[in-house]
Amino acid sequence: MKRRLFLNLSALASFALFIPKSIAKVKSDPIKSNLNRVKKKPVIISTWNHGLAANKAAWEKLETGGTALDAVEAGVRITESDETNRSVGLGGLPDRDGNVTLDACIMNHENECGAVAFLQEIENPISVARKVMEETPHVMIVGIGAQEFALKKGFEKKNLLTEGAKKAWMEWKEKEDKKKPVINHENHDTIGMLAMDKEGNLSGACTTSGWAYKLPGRVGDSPIIGAGLFVDNEVGAACATGMGEAVIRIAGSSSVVELMRQGYSPEEACKIAVKRIQRKHKNLKNLQVGFLALNKDGEVGGYSVYAGFNYALKNDVTDKMIDANYDLEW
Ligand code: ASP
């Protein structure tokens, strides 16, 4: 018995020696905004200002007996169908060639997940992703295959390039070097949503039109389980927004969930993942990434590389925007 205790203690001690300094520092340096530790069930969080309207729809689902999965799907559909939003679904800015191509994924409390990428002319990719999850043995379907699948499931084709988005694209074509997508943080803005229902079950959804004027065929983090979104009902859920390439490189949302498994709060976990992105990239110019996380206690948090990332929080006592903490000023 004693020997086992000793072995456990020495394993712990040697593990402690190998904790990178930056992580150790974050853990002993409690993050100030404990305001976000709401500990309320159910709870919904989602990225950016468009999250407020999305949370409202998600909340209505929860109130009428829907699951967290129903809630996140209903919530982000609002943003997908909002043609004034230039970064998600209908009205999203197109790729370099003027085609709107959409990426989305969804994940529930049983580790079931579905995703679509490079999907065109379908207004609500999140619902197609849910069908992939529930009605196929696969996790991800892309491109023409995803579109054919959607049409078979009763989704309708629609032109997603609105006049406003077309105008913006044509103006971009006039000004920019058309060989390169523009590196501009303002061109990013996914909606990622995480929800916990009355039962305490977690689900998440993530959907985007991706990086404006991207190379045709480019897919970001948003439809990639583990990058743009990850849910582990034993621990918590996380999602990402911003430059998808950087999120993919560190398996972003999965990393945030693993950090919560190690005992970090949602905000601490997001902060450590942000620090990891900063360490792994030599050039941080315009490299905005924001993470959001929700743990099994209903605590929420977010963190971003640069100032400006905010998220919408809804539970039975509040419905508001929160400015995430961050490391760098623009
Ligand atoms: N993460 C998304 C992508 O890289 C875009 C964004 O969140 O702004 O496609």
Quick tags:
330 residues, alpha+beta, Glutamine Phosphoribosylpyrophosphate, subunit 1, domain 1, 8-stranded mixed β-sheet, 5-stranded mixed β-sheet, 13 strands, 35% helix, 22% strand, disordered N terminus, binds aspartic acid
Describe the structure concisely for a colleague:
The chain is built from 10 helices and 13 strands. The chain has 330 residues and is of the alpha+beta class. An 8-stranded mixed β-sheet has the order 4-3-2-6-5-1-11-12. A 5-stranded mixed β-sheet has the order 7-8-9-10-13.
- Largest beta sheet, briefly? 8 strands, mixed
Pick out the low-confidence regions: 1-35
CATH architecture: 4-Layer Sandwich
> Please, how many domains?
1
What does this structure look like?
The chain has about 325 residues and is an alpha+beta fold. It has a single domain (about 45-330), classed as (Glycosyl)asparaginase (Glutamine Phosphoribosylpyrophosphate, subunit 1, domain 1, 4-Layer Sandwich), CATH 3.60.20.30. The protein is built from ten helices and 13 strands. The strands form two sheets. Strands 4-3-2-6-5-1-11-12 form an eight-stranded mixed beta sheet. Strands 7-8-9-10-13 form a five-stranded mixed beta sheet. Strand 11 (about 310-315) and strand 12 form a beta hairpin. Helix 2 (about 20-30) runs antiparallel to helix 10 (about 265-280), helix 3 packs antiparallel against helix 4 and helix 9 packs across helix 10 (about 265-280). Residues about 1-35 have low confidence and may be disordered. Aspartic acid binds near residues 188, 208, 220 and 241. Aspartic acid binds near residues 190 and 208.
